[in-house]
Each structure stands twice: as C-alpha cells, then as structure tokens.
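<goal> How does this chain fold?
<body> The protein record starts here
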Amino acid sequence: MVGEDIDFTRLAVILCKPDAVERNLVDGVLERIAAAGVSVSARTDVVAEPWQVHVAYRDTLTDPGRAPADRPAYLEAAFVGRPVVVALAHGGPDIHARLRRLIGHTDPAQAVTGTIRGDLGSDSIAAATAERRLVRNLVHTSDDPAAARRDLATWFGAGRPAPVCDFENISVVLCKPDAVERGLADDVLERIAAAGATVTNRQQVTVQQWQINVHYWDLLVDADWFPGRDIPACLEAEYAGRQVVVALAHGAPGIHSRLRDLLGHFDPPHAAPGTIRGDLGTDSLTAASAEKRLVRNLVHTSDDPDSARRDFGTWYGARRSGLLAPLLPAQIAPADA
C-alpha cells in the first residue's frame, strides 16, 4: 500500500495549478510556503493526465451539490495536457490546516490579504461561472492525511513505500554563522546543487550548546592539538545562540567525498579556485590562531555515512526521520517494479 511507513499527519502534497505555472508564480507560491516554516522538497514538473485530474478532484466530481453535469469537461479543459508543479511539504501534525489557511479562500476575490490566493490571485468564482469554467486559484494542498496519501500516489506515482533512508546517499550541509551573516547561504547551497546534488529540507537553526558540542566532539576530545586556544570557549563564542542554515544533499554513493572536494581546504587561503572556500572564503587559519579563535570557513558537509547519520540527528532531531522519505519522486517505485 502506498506510503504505509510515511506519517501523513506531517506531510502534504502541494499542487501548483496551470494558472500558477503560466503566470510564473510557482517559485513565489513555494517560497511563501517555505517562509511559513514548512519544509518543501521533491519539486517536480508534471503534465497532467486525465486520470490524475479525476482522482485529485474525485470529491468535486461526485458531490451532487457541487458538481454540474459539465464539471468533468471543466476539469479536463483546465488541467489535462497542461503543466503543473507538485512538491511535498513536511511539517508538524497541523500541517494540513496550516497550509489551507495560508493558501486562503477558494475564491481569490474573497481570500484575505496575506494569503497566497488573496495576494496573488487574479480570478473570481463569479467570472469563472460566467465563462463556464473552473476558477483559477493557483494552488491546492492536501486537505488531511488521507488526502495526502492519495495525492502522493496521484502526482508522484503509485507504488511501494519509500525505502529506509541510506546515508550512503545523503550528506548534511551546515552553513556556518559566518556564511549566514555574510548572506552566502544561498550561494553555498546553489553551488552544491549545481554540482549535481539534490538539496532539500533547508532550515534555519539557532544553535544550542549541546548541538555544537556534539557536532565538534572531535575538536573537544583532541583539544591538546590546539595549544593556546580554549576550544570549548571558542566553540561557544562562534556558534552558541547564533544562526546557521542546514540542508540535506542527496546524491549517488560517493557524495560525501565529492562534497568535501567541492568545499575545498579547511583553511580558505589554501583552498583551490573553484571550491566554495577558495572562491568565497575571506578568513585564514593564521588570523584565527593569532586571535585565538576558530577559522571561519563557511560550510561543513558530512564526512561519511556515519557522520551524516549523526549530523542529521544533531541538526534535525533524532526522531525526525520522516523528513528523509519520501524526498525524491524516484524513491516511489512503480507497483510492478
């Protein structure tokens, strides 16, 4: 059965409708959803097929109080053969209600300011009724967990549950406080994506003391390698209470070493041109040592699968494995595979 190991109380499917695509509003819609504290992943372009539209709107088609005889024709004219964009939204157990409030009233003309339809909508039910068509209201999100399960299979492909996460294929990216404060987190993640990784689940985090101690356990236990520096105090000064950005990078096995090569040498002056630290770094180990602090080198990625597992628990939470699957449409295998 589709998604039997997925917690659909915390997952919704976002459908950016043809009017959102044609008006170039998809980025704006997904950015507003992400800005509301929802993790958006697995963005996928789809050309809608008749069966997908019929299943997605089955309640509309079968409700005798809402469905005129020509409603199937309205739906097919609005969707079939036209491009839509779908994505997954991960959040808390109230995600479905939160998203419905965020997108606003079905009729854009009645949606309040601050909602997606209220701010970006340009149609109305009155106009649609007069023109004998569906209202163009930009976006749909799953109504509840049962609808999320159905929407996932409809738009991403029916199939077996996503496999258990394999940390051979996932690295955690940590954009450090210097990257955030210099406004470089977007640049760092874009360069990682341009290198062929799929970047998902971006989150901004205020660092807690325990997180930095767990993350840099090796510096703490080998502190005698750093004479003249109080490593616990250095870590606290550089990280505790400051903002970092974390994300997941998905790729083929070997992703950990590929990303470490992309980052470059830990001392920015020694990092080669074309690497992130070589191109964007402005600090040096020499300056850091003279000031008795840690070098500011923008970004960390997991060293190997074991560290990726630990980094995930550190920055996302040990009980948040629902973020790991489903993330990529390819993880949802065909039923006859």
About this structure: The first helix runs from residue 18 to 22.
